[in-house]
Amino acid sequence: MEKPYTPESRWGTTLAYTFTDAIDNRDITQHYAFDEATIQQYPFLRNNAMSRHRFVGTGTLSGPWGTTVGAKLTLASPIPHHDVAFFLPPGVYFANGSTGIPVSIAPNNFFGYREFDLQLTKNFELNDSLSLYMRFDILNVFDWYNFADYKTNFGSSGTLPANPVTYNTMGNIFGVPRTFKAQVGMRF
Asked: Closest Cα partner for 54 from 72, 76, 78?
């Protein structure tokens, strides 16, 4: 849904929701193929390239002194983790004779990614074909950590624990921590 910004209306917004129900038989982070003997050993699992639910909302307003103020909110559900789960008791095997089974499990968090950005822009028209601009951004205003790495605990009792995949809170993050950015530029 979109209402474009115009100087006459003094505001604009976009709202976008994406639902993804993708499956694949290959972990997108893997570099090797054909390690197994048959195609049946590559089951189709929920895709680990993207979130199932994603919302992006933007807003633009005319600010004081001829400025433009913008905001963007991005929210997404966790991206699944692909792994081989070894959770059967010793001496117990799956039907294919293996002690491990491929799984695609997302952390039990409501949000996997959250970011709220703000920007302030001032344009200076020099003539019909030349203008300068100054822009100030605050990225990830609330300094939300969007963890990228996982910790796993598949247990060993024959059933998966309630929360076998969690975020590694000491690991890498997606996006940036709270960041301030200033730009000056010319358009012609």
From this structure: 76
Phi-psi map region of 141: left, alpha, beta (phi>0 left; psi -120 to 50 alpha): alpha
CA–CA distance, 169 with 107 (Å, rounded to integer)? 12
> For position 102, what pLDDT does the model report?
83
18 pLDDT higher than 90 = yes
Domain of residue 10: give its range.
2-187
**Total domains, the chain:** 1
**pLDDT tops 80 at residue 34:** no
Quote the tokens at residue 15. 């709202």
* pTM assigned to the model: 0.85
Mean confidence (pLDDT) of the chain: 90
127-66-118 Cα angle (round to 5): 115
Structure tokens at 165: 């995949």
> Which residues contact residue 176 at a Cβ distance below 8 angstroms, ignoring those fewer than 6 apart?
139, 140
Q: Which of 178, 179, 175 is nearest to 111 (CA)?
A: 175
Contact 133, 187 (CB under 8 A): yes
Would you say residue 85 has pLDDT above 80? yes
